[in-house]
Specification:
The chain is α/β, with parallel strands linked by helices and 169 residues long. Helices cover 23% and strands 21% of the residues. Strands 1-5-2-4-3-6 form a 6-stranded mixed β-barrel. It is rod-shaped and about 115 Å long. 17% of the residues are buried.
Length: 169
């Protein structure tokens, strides 16, 4: 029992001496440089600040809204589709126009079809209702080749506040 008491006594005094030493070192080195005394430093990390040079200013656009539509291709003078050379607006058909449901997209509206290009809504169609559009092609073969695709469109008319109908939610 005596050996046990001596061991506990020695450990207690070693612990007490360590705590007192650490406290006195923190008083002597208040800036924290005690770490360099206690632990070997392999190398210092130096962080340099670099001057930021703005080479290009980019204007962030407001949130763009893209809407899902089903697009098909059509061409002029195709009896199977019932098309002629004249649009619903009375103009002659041209590449770069689309047929739309005027309850959704008003005639004359410019839209961008993602990955395809910019088009003008200048025509309507008997089967064009809701979120469907017809893209005009110069030839029946091109229209057939395009077929039916899911597309994303956005209104790009800057001078109007056109909002697509709530049917597109």
């Amino acid at each position: 029992m005596k050996k046990y008491n001596i061991t506990i006594n020695v450990l207690f005094w070693i612990l007490a001496a360590s705590v007192v030493s650490i406290i006195s070192l923190t008083i002597v080195f208040p800036d924290g440089s005690i770490n360099s005394l206690l632990f070997k430093e392999e190398g210092k990390v130096i962080v340099k600040k670099e001057e930021v040079v703005v080479k290009e200013e980019v204007v962030v656009k407001e949130k763009e809204e893209w809407f899902y539509f089903v697009a098909t291709g059509y061409s002029a003078n195709d009896p199977s589709q019932g098309t002629t050379n004249t649009t619903a607006t009375g103009k002659e058909v041209y590449e770069g126009m689309i047929a739309v449901d005027t309850k959704i997209i008003p005639l004359g509206t410019k839209v961008e079809i993602k990955g395809i290009g910019i088009f003008v809504a200048d025509d309507t169609g008997g089967k064009i209702r809701g979120n469907r559009i017809d893209i005009f092609f110069d030839s029946k073969e091109e229209a057939k080749k395009f077929g039916k695709k899911d597309v994303w469109i956005r209104i790009i008319d800057d001078d109007s506040n056109i909002k697509l109908a709530q049917i597109l939610r």
